[in-house]
## 1
Amino acid sequence: MSRQARIVLLGPPGAGKGTQATFLAGKLAIPHISTGDMMRAAVAAGGELAGRLKVFVDAGQLVPDGLIIDVVRDRLSRADCQGGYLLDGFPRTLEQARALDELLLDMGADLTHVVELRVPLDELTERLIKRGQSSGRSDDNAEVIRERMRVYDNQTRPLSEYYEHSGRLTVIDGVGSIDDIRARLAAVIGA
Ligand code: AMP
């Protein structure tokens, strides 16, 4: 597929963003940029920053905007992003969303799709607790899950309105089988 796609996938923890992003990015042959994966890799790699990052990740809190914006700016400037990319887990605050818009403006590009996977809270918690049994993620336990939901409500949910205002948001129902959601997403993206 040659048409450029610059996609933001929005949705709360447990909405299935990672699963769907992996599939979609593969299908479109564009990089899947998961800031969560990048943060976990940075923690695992050790070094100066790792200790600081781990505190935020383990607590279910967002790492500081300035830091994550720098990481994403650097990643998007790499050659493999010239044909498009799929952002999973970024932006997560209004400041990040504004920074991304500025970055895109500088690059003379715009997002082609902003898609939100919408899933009710009780279903999310159930999914995350289940995932925690196999994911090995330090933040998939009941207490941290509650904190991540709270952070989502306070800091990330306002992004729906931000993108809706600028006419860029498409919401899809994130309840159903992985295949169902994959089909809904593909229909929106035209993949
Ligand atoms: P995720 O796998 O997307 O749920 O991300 C796991 C953790 O990485 C989050 O709980 C944050 O601590 C950190 N993180 C990932 N993306 C961001 C972001 N865009 N802004 C701030 N922190 C982030």
Note: The chain has a mean pLDDT of 94.
## 2
Amino acid sequence: MSVLVFHSGIDRGEHWRAALGEAMPDLAFRDWDEPGTDADVDYALVWKPPPGALKARFSTLKAILSLGAGVDHILADPDLPDGVPVIRMVDPGLCQGMVEYALLHALALHRDQPAYAAQQRSRLWHERAAPPPAQERIVGVMGLGRLGGAIAQALAGVGFKLRGWSRSPRDIPGVTCFAGRASLPEFLAPCEILIDVLPATPETVGILNADLFARLPAGAGLINMGRGAHQVEADILAALDAGRLGHAVLDVFETEPLPADHPFWSHPKVTVTPHVAAITQPASGARYIAEVIARIEAGEPPPNAVDPAAGY
Ligand code: NDP
Ligand code: OXD
């Protein structure tokens, strides 16, 4: 029987205990603070584990399993156990949530919905310029992995003209793909709506900055559903105030929770959501964890292991 220890500030442990109990009846589930020995723990399923704790407490770990698709919350720990693989979450439920969020906000920006919402608050009946058909609207997706790839395909399915950008070349039907830093200006140039779904790595920190905004068409919409570490928030505010960006939909922030006095909260051109674009669904997430553990127990290489050099 394998033993799994669970840590998360947000996902409720009892849901995961039940879901993992169903997906893997022979797995012993232990909450982070539950009394018991640490000496027999095989797997740690975690979100934002306290720095240093995985190494200090668990000497027999076979893998660290991320509760989220992003692994920056684990790799930020400078003192991880040596040689223990970190595994990304790949959950269809999470992916569906990300696709829904991207569709919701890309369509809202496309149809000028934030401006109509502001007009309603002012009781103003005013027909704004009609939007072009989706087939004439160019949307760019930064990050074409499990989530970005699905988002790009879903947006192409609605009819938008899709461009995508990744580190290595990708081939996605209906999406014009660009790869590598050198291609970033060419990728950005016509994007009227830009969606960030990149992981936070040393290469992507601060990528949403004044220089990048200057390469977009004036008035472009921005959706950051990747990580707050990507965005230079002072540059977003300056670009919005200068009309360089038309509107920003932000799900992630440099500091989370977003401080109560942050200008984003009341900025008329900013939509704030509290890092909820998508969350891992315990039922489908548990089936994935069961599959990962079965592969490791069978002596196979773990799927979706993070490349520590690349940071994702
Ligand atoms: P993947 O690892 O599957 O994909 C990452 C993509 O980003 C790949 O296409 C990769 O390129 C690309 N990429 C990485 N580094 C660079 C770079 N330096 N330049 C260009 N492209 C780069 O990740 P997922 O799709 O599963 O998740 C993406 C991120 O979404 C997560 O890391 C997390 O930060 C965020 N997220 C946010 C959520 C929210 O609620 N807001 C929920 C879930 C995830 P390549 O294809 O060449 O490898
Ligand atoms: C994730 C997240 O990485 O929820 O899954 O941010």
Note: Residues 69 and 259 are 25 Å apart (CA to CA).
